[in-house]
């Protein structure tokens, strides 16, 4: 079973969200990086770009496939994880730590539409069948 940290919130499209004071850190889940395989390229959003919840905002490419990343909430991009540009494998190695993708300043605290760790685990289990 892939790891699903309880302290995070999750989107149905396999992004995770961590609240840190007034910012939201976004990454892709352990399940998502396992399904993709070894990442070879990541395209991150531009800083100061405004994103709507559900908007395509980044791309991850592996040897197997490319996948779009969607913003789990609306907000302004204030930071990207530049170390991923040279080392996209950090997402494979540490998806909930060093492999984070970007940080948003949310327009409102709109995490209610996101899944709990338990709900996300159930979704992943149902997709596997």
Can you walk me through this structure?
With 129 residues, the chain is of the alpha+beta class. The protein has one domain: OB fold (Dihydrolipoamide Acetyltransferase, E2P) (Beta Barrel), CATH 2.40.50.100. The protein is 21% helix and 34% strand. The strands form two sheets. A six-stranded antiparallel beta sheet has the order 1-2-3-9-8-5. Strands 4-6-7 form a three-stranded antiparallel beta sheet. The protein starts with 8 loop residues before the first strand and ends with a helix.
How many domains is the backbone divided into?
A: 1
How is the main sheet built? 6 strands, antiparallel
Number of H- or I-type helical stretches: 4
Strand order of the largest sheet: 1-2-3-9-8-5
Strand and helix order: EEEHEEEEEHHEH
The residue-averaged pLDDT reads: 94
CA-CA gap between termini: 14 Å
Low-pLDDT residue intervals, each spanning 5 or more residues: none
CATH class: Mainly Beta
Radius of gyration: 13 Å
Please provide the count of β strands. 9
The percent range for strand residues is: 25-35%
CATH superfamily: RNA polymerase II/Efflux pump adaptor protein, barrel-sandwich hybrid domain
